[in-house]
Amino acid sequence: MGRVRILPEILAHKIAAGEIVDRPASVVKELIENSLDAEATKIHIKIENGGKRLISVLDNGFGMSAQDAKTAFQHHATSKISRFEDLSQIATLGFRGEALPSISAVSRLHMRTVERNDTQKLSTGVELNFEGGKLIKSREIAWLEGTQIEVFELFYNVPARQKFMKTVATEIGHISKLVTYHALAWPHVEFQLHHQNRHLIEAPAVKSLEDRVCQVLGKTFMENLIGVDYQRNGIHVTGYTSLPHEQRRTSRFQYLFVNGRIVRDRIIAHAIRLAYQDLIPTAAHPVVLISLELDPAEVDVNVHPNKTEIRFRDSNKIHKSIYNALEESLLRPQDTLGDLARDVPLKYLQTRKFPHSQGNTSRRIETFFQRSPDSSLGFKELRQYVDKNRLEDFPVSLAPAREDPHSLNIPETADLSPIPIVLGQFVESFLVVADREGVMLIDQHVAHERILYDQILRNQANNRKIPTQKLLIPQIIELTAEQKTSITPLLDHLNSNGFEVEWFGERTIAVKGVPVIAKDCREIPRLMEEIINTVENEPSSHSTGGEAQRLSEKIAISVSCQSAIKINTPLSPEKMQWLVDSLFRCKNPYTCPHGRPITLRMNIEDVLRGFKRI
Ligand SMILES: Nc1ncnc2c1ncn2[C@@H]1O[C@H](COP(=O)(O)OP(=O)(O)OP(=O)(O)O)[C@@H](O)[C@H]1O
Ligand SMILES: [Mg+2]
């Protein structure tokens, strides 16, 4: 027998299923897409054990006849395309006819459905039971409307895949993220997500994207977003994008939809980055929620097994549209961003209010520009300004020179203190410090962050309880569904790390106390968000000692970052010296817990070489 053989059908199907279904969230995605294609206006999802025990999706769409229901489980069976040409005009989310057979090949699946009729009464539907892709039972049932698909014991017959499933918290995290995404893409459809009988998402149909954002991401999320509405060359870009001071550490808060499909796309991501290029630091990411509507013929959706990547026929046109759409929105509220983005006369800045700012933005800009002349001046005016403000000749002591000044090649450094001495503060953000080795600039924020972080870890290592500062008024924080799932296994860790946090309703927490170190932290919600972000995707609550330790370290990183002295803060000489002394007592005074450098050095040799003295 030759070495090349045709695989048994069942094995081939299991392998094919692996491309489409790799974790519970991908089953949820396929089922939601089918419901949306069936014009459902209500989609209710129930999950047990992170989707490992049960994934149930119930919709009120147009359903199927008994005959179609059976056919739907055949490979390449679809109602969405019939000719090759249809592939270039796809207006539905599905088109491969592969999702149902793939899911049923790797689970025990029950489907109940009835074809839509306008009687609003129970009618005769069908229930089909599959096991490992085989139909094992079919019967008539009384069913009101739509379709329900229940997927039990996903991967029960693919042990290798089962092993790759992560903890319940991680899987449900992926599922909530996915449902959140769909809910944002389809505001007029009702979405519900339940896990172990707890509501994670409850989003009744709404009229606008704004209402949907408030429902699933919280009201505060909307505050720093501005609308996008741009239509040209057959492309309509709508949604929201963030003002420059709203910056995130990851691009997770960028939601992109193309014709209702959730996509990841490098061209769109690049256009977003470019639009914000001069507005935010390179390491920061804006919050973006945009939806593109264009002729389906302009998009090739058949390029990825999960249908999450697409290809545009004219990618330049798409890039330009996204860039222009964001730029137009960012420049529209002239009172806010125009000021931030361009050089503006100083007097203007001092009187200007930033309606969207969080209060301190205008102050920050003022202090930053304070010492510079009016930057809108032309070259001629600038020359006059410099001439008028010329320094008086510097009075030099006329004591007789004992030696020829040029013969003194090397300055005296023996007297320099071995401990670093503060010489001053540069732009209220960096300390200028000298020691025997030379001079250095120290970033006051990251230096303080390192000091606080080491202090927290020392307390932990000595098994000392981290002292708590009670808040006068508890801070109530609204969470997104995703954040809710991430914080649930975290609460115990927070409470044993100096916090006092408890549930205050379905999707809100009350922060009643914070570690004493964070007592001056003015933005508790931001601190909590930062903690959730940094520990997200961490293994679940059943932590071993090592994982618990890692979680505590991550909490310590967020607490120290949010509590440390900020940039643009004037410091007294005593405080600066304290910072420097404490910093050099740390084990690693050179990088902050995030890995950023704390000091920039210029050694004495560099200085001498630079001045051609050696
Ligand atoms: N919830 C539903 N309501 C009504 N019809 C459905 C539903 N789910 C599936 N179907 C029917 O079953 C067919 C097969 O579904 P399946 O998801 O396997 O393929 P598809 O959606 O056509 O393509 P893809 O594999 O890209 O998802 C669909 O074409 C549709 O006609
Ligand atoms: Mg489908």
Walk me through what this model shows.
- The protein is α+β, with helices and mostly antiparallel strands and 614 residues long.
- The protein folds into four domains: 9-210, Heat Shock Protein 90, CATH 3.30.565.10; 224-332, Ribosomal Protein S5, domain 2 (2-Layer Sandwich), CATH 3.30.230.10; 344-369, no CATH class; 415-614, 2-Layer Sandwich (formyl-coa transferase, domain 3).
- Helices cover 35% and strands 22% of the residues.
- It contains 21 helices and 22 strands.
- The strands form five sheets. Strands 5-4-3-6-2-1-7-8 form an eight-stranded mixed sheet. A five-stranded mixed sheet has the order 9-10-13-11-12, sandwiched between helices.
- A hairpin with a 2-residue loop joins strand 11 and strand 12.
- Helix 6 (168-185) packs antiparallel against helix 7 and helix 18 (524-535) packs antiparallel against helix 19 (545-563).
- The longest helix has 19 residues, at 545-563.
- The chain is elongated, with a radius of gyration of 31 Å.
- It starts with 8 loop residues before the first helix and ends with a helix.
- Residues 333-383, 390-398 and 538-544 have low confidence and may be disordered.
- The chain binds adenosine-5'-triphosphate (ATP) and magnesium ion.
- Adenosine-5'-triphosphate is lined by residues 30, 34-35, 38, 59, 61-64, 72, 77-80, 94-100, 147.
